[in-house]
Amino acid sequence: MFQYENTVRGKMNIEKVWELYANVNKWSEWDSDMQNVVLEGKFVTGTKGTMYIKEMPPLPFVLDEVQNGKVFINSSVLGEIVVQFGHFISEDGNGECTLKHTVTITGPNEAQLQGMGQGIVLNIPGNMERLSQLARM
Known about the structure:
single chain, alpha+beta, seven-stranded antiparallel sheet, 4 helices, about 25% helix
């Protein structure tokens, strides 16, 4: 299994963060790898879609969990490999917001999972910083 977590903290507008998450047409504004995302319905648990990532074939995904304004988790099944992305928002009551993104990859070949994971998470810190800048108050 491969696991990764990254957080950013700052004064952000939670509604703006959620808008950037829930509107898949805006993912490319904060995710440098994303070219386009097509969702086959509303941004709710169970909805399927396709991500078009630079230099990769189209990647089908499903929204595993959506809690408005708080969390969304999506996953892609690639044969025996499952890649799951978590996106979490929390607020401390003093106007500080924390964004946490996670990546979990499961499958039979540990070395393959580690190599795949390192490639997937390479741009996450910069993408999260861009996301937090777009949502600054």
